[in-house]
Queue: 3 jobs
Job 1
Amino acid sequence: MVNAPQQSTERDRRADDDLGANGRRDAAHLRSAVRWATGQQVVSMSVMLGTYAVHVHPDLTPLGARDLNLRATQAGLHALGVEWFEVRGRDDRASTLGVRASDRDRVLRGIRSLLLRTHGYAIAAGSRRRSTITRILAPSNTLQWETLREANVIRLVWFRTEPTHSLVYGPDASCDVELWSFDKDAGNLLAPRPNRCAQEVVAARPMVSAHRADFTRLASGRWGRGNAALGMTMSREEFVHDSPDDVRFPVDLVYTWVDGQDPAWLERRAKLDASTHHREASNAARYLQRDELRYSLRSAFMFLPWVRHIYLVTDRQRPHWLRQDSDRVSVIDHSSIFTDASHLPTFNSHAIETQLHHIEGLSEHFLYLNDDMLIGRPLTPQKFFHPGGLTRFFPSPAQVNMGSPSPADPPTTAAARNNRRLLEERFQTTLFHKMKHAPYAMRRSVLYEIENTFPEAYRRTSASRFRSPEDISIASSLQQYYSYNSGRSLPGSLSYQYLALDFPDLQERFVRLLHRRDTDAFCLNDGDSQASEVEAQRETLHKFLEAYYPIAAPWEK
């Protein structure tokens, strides 16, 4: 434990002394800066090959950590009497403020005082790219602090964690203070490094009010403007325009889910005979409930804050931990989306996926996830959607062997071969690769078009109660390649890991994921576990997921 911040009266008096006349004139802003910067508790932790003071906050998301650092820095500059403006920087996880380079001495003196009082740190960032970083500087070390004298960008860092200490935010959520030089001849302020909008701004032009969502794509521009918690900021007119690379349409999230231990569901399933299908089609391990959905939804809450609404497609079920009054998650029963009620009940994910675009109120653009898919770090909508509306897909190195489908094929292979036949007939191109088992970017209009283009294959799959050699797989390759061939999708890149629960080195892989947290998405797959393995797997998986996603989503009881 490090020393906790002083009581407010002593803190205010010392701050006034540190900042001189400006601090005394605007002590309220300084108190606000200290309040934003300081957590409920401050602990000493080993982070980034060093030991630092770390603030503890309940329920802190990446966007929340960014916002705390931004507000603390803004209030600190207010206390100095320094005019600042928010900049649309190149890093969506961090924030950037511009100040005049003529205020350098006052800014350095003031932010040093603020960091000393709030257990913060600084970094001298390079003038060209955020990645050119020197060491983390302690404001108490005068020799280290002097190295900031020539820096054009000063990064303010407060290390922050949540109560379990398993998730730590540092320079990735920082607030950068850029020192903009003044061009007397043009009357413009000049940026010390590239940003997304403007290398210079008109100095005499008045400041404008803007929504904080406009300055990070994690809030998704105009759709994030509806988030009252983010609030408003001040900027320059040059930074408050919609950009060609902004995703300006809403994006929803769709999950399919089943509780395989529900007695009523098991009874419905037992009435149907799946013995004629491939073993994988009715393997009980596919329906085991390990609470993956809870953590997949947490991953969306933490790392996809731009999602508008979440739809959970189920068969007369509801997770016990899901609040009834959530305005962010809607439970959709199969009966409300299947156009032919005689196809129900179904235990075939391929059949359910033929009906997703019938969800009432679903946005044109949406992400489809299984409950074994999880987001690994903050991602912008541009990872999945082109700003012009095209979707992105992520081909797997795994290939689909040539040949016709047969009852001996795993259902996924048979479906891919059926997809290939349809695509060859429609576009005269051949499908070779599977897709990564990662979030699928989809468009309702494309799904309606596929349904109308291949009505017989669609109807046959919808009517198949268990996975069948005659199925097509709409979500996991057909819609991607159909969109690609019709000019409505493009290949994308995704840092991805596939983790089978029966991997012998699963524990080591979990440790690496927790330590690095550098994977965009990963899959926790289980299609062939034995009953004797289930309990040990459940315990290992729960410990990993609770450590990776310690922040409960607001829709959890």
Job 2
Amino acid sequence: MPSSPTASSSDGYDFLFRILIGALGVVVPLSHLAWTCGNLAAWATGHAWAPYQPAEALLHPERLWPEATDATVLAAARIVPAIALLALAAAAVLLWRHHGFGSGRRKKIRGLATAKDVQPLLAKATTAKARSLRPSLTDTKHPPPGETGVLLGNLQGTRREVRMGYEDVAVAIMAPRSGKTTSLAVPSILAAPGPVLLTSNKAGGDAYTATLDARAQAGRVWSMDPQQIAHAERAMWWNPLADATTLDGAGRLAGHFLAASVDANQQGDFWSKAGSNILAQLLLAAARDQRPITDVTRWLAFPADRTPLDILRDHGFTAVAAQLKGTVEGPPETRDGIYETARQYAAALLNNQIAAWITPQQDVPEFRPAEFVTSTDTLYLLSKDGGGGASALIAACADSVMRAATAQAERAGGRLDPPMLAVLDEAANVCKISDLPDLYSHLGSRGIIPLTILQSYRQGQKVWGEAGMDAMWSASTIKVIGSGIDDPDFADKLSRLIGDHDVPTTSTSRSESGKSTSVSMRQERILPADAIRALAKGTALCFATGMRAAMLDLRPWYAEPGADQLAAASDAASKAITDRALAKHTPRQDDYGTAA
């Protein structure tokens, strides 16, 4: 229905009225500034004080102060007020932006958590909680922030730091290049007060190089790099059979080889279970007889070898020996299928370069998890994506460290002090600990703080299954969601978790008697799924147990004080990796100049 002439003219008058109000908002203060500044300049130069005529002062200052020079009048009545007004405008813009209303990225969203909603994650509460959890901080009046919790970011649009405490367990789901390493992994490692464990599939320009030098100043640095991602010198070896002297321990170790080779939905079939069982029995035999783990590959190659059977019987594992004998003496086609499956799981042990990291080495120190968890050392566990058996060893080592930390916490009265930080970056690729979701239920209460970083929710489902990933998600007291969530189902799930809020809706009706306006309320998603997908880089959603979802501004390490020194150290470490790689691939020459 076309608008009436009356309605059109009314809209025009409203528009002109707004323009008039805006103009008055500029002209009135500017004219008063001109009159005030002009009189101050006249008084300072010995001239008469002009009467109250602000409009004249702005338009014709020479009429009010005829005795003053043109330069004095121009400076006092024109330039100074203009500068003052611009300064006020700039201050207003800065204040506007500081409180989150400036750009699209920092615009506050109604319905998300305020500082009051996340009070338990702010400085005062986390400091008080840290004192209650850590006896070593009882007499410390102002403990450093890193001693009280892991920095997640700033509450958006403010300078209030949001931290997870040292009893929280966290999952971060962030796409590549969304700040998961620069804003979560690196800052948390740099500030950690106790031992640190990091798993990663990268070295140059990553958390490894960014933190290597700083952590070397905090304690000893251990690097396990069986696939030579960082081309690190083999300055340690670790015995995976140390925890395999029981059937449960051997089963856990075999489970890491299984998880590294097949997805969660394939681990329950006959061949996978049988192959894992036979591998566990052979690992148990090697561990009980204090043999290197590489002996298992020889037994897998020759099923008729009775050595593992004799070892198991000698150490009292008669039932296990009977099962092993039954498999060996069973139908050849079944036996060969089971053994071939187990051979595939343990294939990485055939690689001499990988095996060297897990067998005794002369003049190379042994990494002992029980000693590590009582230190301030750092362990870097590096493996390539899809590393098969190599990633199994990485997962087994990380699992061994967390179990040693649990045992130490029990001996220390229940908790580690200082706590241990376990940053499981790229966990779904290089650290597939099958029962990690179950461990989440008690690690935080032991002072063991896991931060599992994934690229997507579905990536976790692929490794731990739908039930396992749901269990980890539910057990996590802190959940961080970064940019790049392209899964519509997961984005909608997050949107529902954030909830709805009331939005006022204004409706206007016009008639011959005039215009009437009414306001009604309707429910609307605080953050719809498309808005979650479009989260800007540098921001993240934080879900904490019992609190409203909060929007965070991430704090990348390179924007913090001291970043120049860290960047220089990171560049030097990256260059050292490149130099070691080139040295390995440069042909050596013999004494006659011939390439060796």
Job 3
Amino acid sequence: MAAHPSARLAAAGINAAALALCTLLALLAAPALDQRLLDAQFALNRAWFPQPVQTDVVLVGIDEAFLDTVEEPLTLSHRYLAAFLDATSEAGARVIALDLVLPEKRFDTLISAHEPDFDFHRTLLAGLMRTLPRSKLVLAKVWDTERSHYRDIQLDYAAVLNTQQDGVQALASALFCSDDDTRIRRYPDPGWNCLPDRSPYTLSSEISAAMGKRQQWSGLINYQIGPAFRYLPLQEVLRLAERGGKEQLRAMFAGKAVLVGTVQDDTDLLNLPAAIAAWREGRRLPGVLVHAQAVRSMLNQGLIQPLGPAWAWGMAAAGALFWFHAAVARKVLLAMLASAALLAASNILLRQGLWIAPSAMLASLWLAVLSRSADQGWRNFSEKQRLRRTFSGYVSPQVMQQIVEGGVDARKQGAKVEVCVLFSDIRNFTSMSELLPAEQVVALLNRYFGRITSMVHKHGGTVDKFIGDGMMAFFGAPNELPSPEKAALEAARDMLAELAQLNAELRAEGKAELAMGIGLHSGPAVIGYIGSSHRHEYTAIGDTVNVASRLEGLCKQLGYPIICSGAVAERLGPDGAAMLSPLGEHGLKGHSAVPVYGWDPQAAGA
């Protein structure tokens, strides 16, 4: 039967609302999920799919050991920086980057206790001047939150650095912007609008530019490429320079990008999405490593390019389509396969430098699957409750329980069972119904069947079907009974008693009374679901059913309201058979003669 247009519109509205809700919720949850997933994929690829790099960064670290060997604080390490710049530039470093902030003052008034004539300012200035003809220099600048601008460096230093040519910014921002979970994944391009002055120049971009890779960078830092970083201690580089180890220094630095920064355990630590330090565990690492990994990304595969928001919307909407199709088990299997395929594809593309954030689709997919499964489960539960309320009016509570528990299964083949079949019919109802309006006929039948079916259920019987004003029931299936024949006869007697009460009510209402005939026969019958795959019913078929139907037809002829076969009388035993009157053998239409017995409430003293 076709659905009513209003029902189709309501269903379409529910489906549209479900799709929209799954998509919206997935998009809200996706960013946090994608961050965790991206970190997991970085870790997975570093462990199982290592990607070497062609051009790497040489990391020189200022560690606790260096600070323990010098007398001056780090801000006054002018002589060591100058010596380092001389050594690395002379060794052929292509670019030297300092993740350090140069002083704002000359410190002319400071005097070294061991070298009274030592000039801090001139020493560093001379080192800068000797370096620039040989190597590019890039120095970090940091933001002064109190003054709302980048901190200035001493004018002489700035003047020397401004002589650098070839479009490399000597002073570049060392700032990074973190995601809402404080981890640094994305390169701070101007479009992100996270840097104070939206500067396009960063320490990483200018190192890359000095190495011949100048472009407008945008995307995610590629934390999956290259091995874990190891650093050269600054003091070892200075010792090699003092000992004249020029060949060793050239092997370390010639043609390479050199990055200097602090690697102390408690200084300038940032949260990274991957463990990229070889000398310490965890992901809270010195900030110089972020610059190093960003430069490594730029000089090799480039930054990872994430797909835009439109893709996230599209993928979330595509995942929400799993709301459709009602087969839960199949849908869950498909959802698992789709999730695995999406994660695999995302990881493969990530290794190629493209990030397809899968969480929007995964979240909407599983939201759709689980919500639809919950909705379907609730509908099934409601439908079962509705069927229980409806079906319980036609079968006994025992049968209903077996149906609910799966004892009656439409997939099982029919089985031959010994049952007692009951047929009942209202006498002369056809002629009576011709005199009544259809509504009154239906109301009277419902009233009548409501009284007599309760008696069948009371004695453990199963109502098979209603045939006009007749009814077929059987006893002994699907629930077993100690004596189906006794239960059937007692039910038939109670049906007559109920009919007597109904007739009393009809007389009081001035309506015609009803007369009923009941036929009982016992024997084997095939019990099960009969019909097509589209329409079937739980019923009994066989000769036992046919005989019971023919016996009911003898009631009017023999003048007894209940007619039983000899098989019923025999199985009732002597006590039960004593209540019955033997009526001899009678021929049945389409069947050989059978012995019959009658039961009359008046003769039985009922």
